[in-house]
Design brief:
209 residues, alpha/beta, Rossmann fold, 5-stranded parallel sheet, binds adenosine-5'-diphosphate, binds zinc ion
Length: 209
């Protein structure tokens, strides 16, 4: 199953993608994660994109498309995958259509006030990238990852100025993808407001194993 996860930042796409990836045994491909790993490792790509990402802006289509093309060329993608955070612009969607035909684009729907509450409370594990939330998904020990014991931190782009910018970018550049996939009959809508466990149940009904 080849899936795209759409929705505003903070909709819980990444969290759901991890759960769906484990349940359906398909890789979770997050462009945001790939960029953050590159920044952490100070690769040439990481050095190029760090300031852009910290400010809540989008990395150029050229760089992002090339990155995804390479990733989709790897062996583990044969049985399917979840693309989380890509495509994010119409040119990216058009480029993807030339690389592969996806089965469905799942739109995780949530209003702006919900987004701000989620992003401003988000904490991320430095070692394994697991997401937590200070109110909705607390780790057992504050500041420590349940899965690997790594340190939890606040993403630079989860600070309020960057959140506002990301929502603006989302509305302008990414929201049009909803109509793009609806018009080709590939759009599935999911209410992203309930807990991630509840959203996963809803997802399993929509895409039976
Ligand atoms: P979120 O969905 O929480 O906003 P991501 O982890 O998906 O965050 O992405 C973080 C940042 O990485 C984005 O704000 C953007 O700067 C960059 N990025 C990720 N995916 C793309 C993409 N497809 N095109 C351009 N920039 C991207
Ligand atoms: Zn961890």
């Amino acid at each position: 199953m080849k899936l795209i996860f759409l929705g505003p930042p903070g909709a819980g796409k990444g969290t759901l993608a991890v759960l769906v990836s484990e349940t359906y045994k398909i890789p979770h491909i997050s462009t945001g994660e790939i960029f953050r790993a590159a920044i952490r490792e100070k690769t040439p790509l990481g050095l190029k994109v760090q300031a852009i990402i910290d400010a809540g802006q989008l990395v150029s289509d050229d760089i992002t498309i090339e990155l995804v093309r390479e990733r989709l060329g790897k062996d583990d993608t044969k049985a399917g995958y979840i693309l989380d955070g890509f495509p994010r612009t119409i040119p990216q969607a058009e480029a993807l259509a030339k690389i592969v035909e996806i089965d469905a684009a799942v739109n995780f729907d949530i209003a702006d006030d919900g987004v701000v509450a989620r992003l401003s409370g988000r904490r991320v594990c430095r070692s394994c990238s697991q997401n937590y939330h200070v109110d909705y998904m607390k780790p057992k020990v504050e500041g420590v990852c349940d899965k690997c014991g790594g340190e939890l931190y606040i993403r630079e782009d989860d600070k309020i100025e960057a959140i506002t910018k990301r929502l603006e970018v989302y509305r302008k550049q990414t929201a049009p993808l909803i109509d793009f996939y609806r018009s080709v009959g590939k759009l599935t809508e999911v209410d992203a407001r309930p807990s991630s466990a509840a959203v996963l149940e809803e997802f399993k009904k929509l895409f039976p194993l």
